[in-house]
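Page 37, continued from 36.
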C-alpha cells in the first residue's frame, strides 16, 4: 500500500464530492482501504480527521460564495446542510461570524486543499525488528468501535477494564485492533472494528481447552511476519509518537508494507508513566 498516494487520491475524491453526501466510509472505499485504517492514517498524516477536512473545505468554499453574493440558503443546501440553522451554527463556529455578517464583509477563514508529501529529515533512529510469529490465540475482552469516535472511547475502555473486578483478573498487557480482511488481503470497507484487551490465551489456565472466562473471547491471529517497533516514554505519548513516525517515516521508505488485518500494542511490565517505560507496536507486514 502506497500510503501517500492513497491519501492524495482520497483528497481528490473528497474535493470532487464536497457537494455530495459523503462520509468516512465512502472516502475510504474510494481508495479501497477499510475506514478504520484510512481514518488512522489520514489523521496522522494530515493532523485532522477526514470529517474535519470535508467540513472545513465546505465551509471555506461556502464563505467565499456568500461573500460574493450567493444566497445563503442555496449555499447551505449545496454543501449538504439539512437546515439553515445547522449551517449557520457550523459556519459561525468555523469563521467566527454569521453568514449574514460574512455577506456584509466580515473577515473569513479559508482552508485550502491539502496535498500530502513526505520529507526525510533529521537522523533519529527508529528501533524495530522483523520477526516471524507462529499463529497464536489471544484471550481478550473485546468491543466494537467506530473509527471516528474510537480515539476517545478506547482509553475509556482501558479504564473500564482495570476498574472491573472480573476483567482485571486477566492480565491486560495487549491491545489488539482486529480489522477483518478479505481472502486476498484487501481490507473490507467498514467504519467498525473490534478492539480487545487481554493476553496470550496460554497465559490463562484452561483458556485453550475451552474454559473461557465470562466476558472474554479467543481471538485467533494467523501466522505472519511482524514489524515490532520499540516505543520509549510514557505509554500514551510514546505509542502516539511511534504511530506518527511509522506512517510518516517508515512506511514510505521501508522494504515492507502493512497487511491490513491486525495490529497489536504490547505493554511491557513497568511504570507506564515513566520516561524510560518501554512498550511495542507490532504490525503484520510483507515484502513490497
Amino acid at each position: 500500500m502506497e500510503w501517500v498516494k492513497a491519501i492524495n487520491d482520497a483528497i481528490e475524491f473528497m474535493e470532487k464530492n464536497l457537494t455530495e453526501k459523503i462520509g468516512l466510509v465512502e472516502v475510504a472505499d474510494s481508495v479501497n482501504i477499510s475506514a478504520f485504517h484510512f481514518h488512522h492514517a489520514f489523521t496522522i498524516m494530515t493532523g485532522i480527521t477526514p470529517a474535519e477536512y470535508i467540513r472545513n473545505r465546505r465551509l471555506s468554499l461556502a464563505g467565499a460564495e456568500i461573500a460574493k453574493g450567493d444566497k445563503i440558503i442555496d449555499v447551505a443546501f449545496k454543501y449538504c446542510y439539512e437546515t439553515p440553522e445547522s449551517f449557520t451554527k457550523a459556519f459561525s463556529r468555523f469563521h467566527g461570524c454569521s453568514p449574514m455578517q460574512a455577506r456584509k464583509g466580515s473577515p473569513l477563514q479559508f482552508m485550502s486543499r491539502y496535498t500530502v508529501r513526505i520529507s526525510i529529515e533529521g537522523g533519529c533512529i527508529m528501533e524495530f525488528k522483523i520477526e516471524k510469529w507462529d499463529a497464536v490465540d489471544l484471550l481478550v475482552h473485546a468491543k466494537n468501535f467506530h473509527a471516528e469516535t474510537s480515539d476517545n472511547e478506547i482509553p475509556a475502555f482501558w479504564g473500564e477494564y482495570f476498574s472491573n473486578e472480573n476483567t482485571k483478573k486477566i492480565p491486560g498487557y495487549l491491545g489488539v485492533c482486529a480489522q477483518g480482511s478479505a481472502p486476498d488481503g484487501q481490507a473490507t470497507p467498514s467504519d467498525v472494528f473490534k478492539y480487545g484487551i487481554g493476553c496470550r490465551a496460554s497465559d490463562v489456565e484452561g483458556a485453550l481447552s475451552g474454559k473461557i472466562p465470562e466476558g472474554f473471547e479467543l481471538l485467533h491471529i494467523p501466522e505472519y511476519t511482524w514489524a515490532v517497533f520499540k516505543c520509549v516514554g510514557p505509554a500514551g505519548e510514546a505509542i502516539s509518537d511511534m504511530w506518527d513516525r511509522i506512517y510518516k517515516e517508515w512506511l514510505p521508505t521501508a522494504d515492507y508494507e502493512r497487511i491490513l488485518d491486525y495490529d497489536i500494542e504490547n505493554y511491557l511490565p513497568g511504570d507506564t508513566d515513566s520516561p524510560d517505560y518501554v512498550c511495542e507496536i507490532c504490525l503484520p507486514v510483507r515484502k513490497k
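Residues 34 and 233 are 30 Å apart (CA to CA). Flag for discussion at group meeting. The beta strands are 128-133, 136-146, 174-178, 192-200, 217-221, 224-232, 256-258, 262-267, 278-287.
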